[in-house]
Amino acid sequence: MKKFLLYLLMPALVFVAGCDKDDEERPVTPVISAVYPSSGHPNMIIRIKGKNFSTTREENKVQFNGKAGIVIEASETELLVVSPVTGTTGPVTLATPKGSATGGVFTYLPPVEEYEVTTLAGTGTAGSVDGPVATALFRTVQGVAIGTDGSVIVTDRGNNRIRRITTAGEVMPVAGANSAGYTNATGAAARFRLPWRAVEDAQGNIYVADRDNHAIRKITPAGVVTTIAGTGIAGYTDGPAAAAQFNQPLDIVADAAGNLFVADNLNHRIRKIAADGEVTTIAGNGTAGFANGTGAAAQFRNPSGLEIDKDGNLLIADRLNHRVRKVTQAGVVTTLAGDGTSGYLDGDAAAARFADPYGITVDANGNIYIADLNNHKVRKISAEGKVISIAGGAKGFTDGLGAGAQLNTPTDVCVDRNGNLYVADQANHAIRKLSRR
């Protein structure tokens, strides 16, 4: 009887085995599930996600509406492809030895100004060396600002120093030394503790957001460092400068009247230090969140970048809200760009996406520039409300044109009177320059 039952089951067993063999031999064709971003410009790095791609880079033939892209990295589930210069709006297709696939439509956006990215100073190696820009070394640069003489002021966070790149191409010390502390003194005798950003006023005084000393410091043209606000202890207190408290201030700007404004990171507020030393809160209520409104009705989430436009409005890189915000002189907070989702998308400002917008500046024409930290790019918000990427492709350290250049976690950006941009390229330990072509 047992033999009889086994005999009856054998055809089924053979059939199942046969199915497994057929499945192994059946070709597995590629599938495109997403093209990201879905719009952009020539020479951008595009991510194509899916499955069953060839792990041999050269075997993946990607076309944008019939024009070949350049595949630079390949895995079974993702391709990195440079969009073709001659491409036009249309479907993205893939051909491999396993078969072919068609993805979504990639839309070519109108041409934008091209920027040439070069390295102003720093070699990609961390260190602390002054002198000619070709051999100077920095360590996790955090901030850049334009001095009154056209020089670039560098907040060299990892070295706890403030330094200056002169227009003659020399890196000069301003204040601080290669050790952390909290000392008011002159030049190299002064100590900072992870200084984040700085700004120079019309009289040549430099103000520093000294993050982990929870204080705002001042450096005179003679190099004398003093504390102008903050107790050195993290907290939140408005009032006279000597009693006021901050919690990791990250950025600082000055207006023509001598008032200072501070992005107070862990207090989730925008603060003001008046010319008479009184500290007040302009906007934010101390709760991390997102809300537009006036004064304490508004909410931020770790504001990290701050700039002031020609009309006296404050522009905020609201980092963990992934948005760019505006604060009027009356304390009214609105959103200029970003939908609040971390990502990367150019286009209309309200729908655009950033990934930790970290530093911000504005030019004389009202164009806003963002150091987009985790997208490794510099983005531009035009006066017409369009967001475009002007520099940076995949994470790396390469000079070049637009998306063909590479940055590594850019933290800050500033613009000179000629429209050139300077970027604190943090993980590359370098200062990069973007010049219009």
Account of the 3D structure:
The chain has one helix and 38 strands. The longest helix is centred in the first third of the chain and has 24 residues, at 2-25. It has a five-stranded mixed beta sheet, with no helix packed on it. A five-stranded antiparallel beta sheet has the order 35-10-38-37-36, with no helix packed on it. The chain has one helix at residues 2-25; strands at 31-36, 39-40, 45-51, 61-64, 67-68, 70-74, 78-82, 90-96, 99-108, 115-121, 131-132, 143-146, 152-156, 161-165, 170-176, 195-200, 206-210, 215-219, 225-229, 239-240, 249-254, 260-264, 269-273, 278-283, 293-294, 303-308, 314-318, 323-327, 332-337, 347-348, 357-362, 368-372, 377-381, 386-391, 400-401, 410-415, 421-425, 430-436. β6 and β7 (78-82) form a beta hairpin. With 437 residues, it is mainly β. 5% of the residues lie in helices and 44% in strands. The radius of gyration is 26 Å and the shape is globular.
Using the CA coordinates, give the radius of gyration.
26 Å
Strand percentage lies at 35-45%
Distance between the termini: 88 Å
Number of helices: 1
Low-confidence stretches: 1-23
The side-by-side strand order for the widest beta sheet comes to: 2-9-8-4-5
Beta strands, count: 38
Classify the helix fraction into a percent range.
under 10%
Quick one: overall form? globular
Mean pLDDT reading: 93
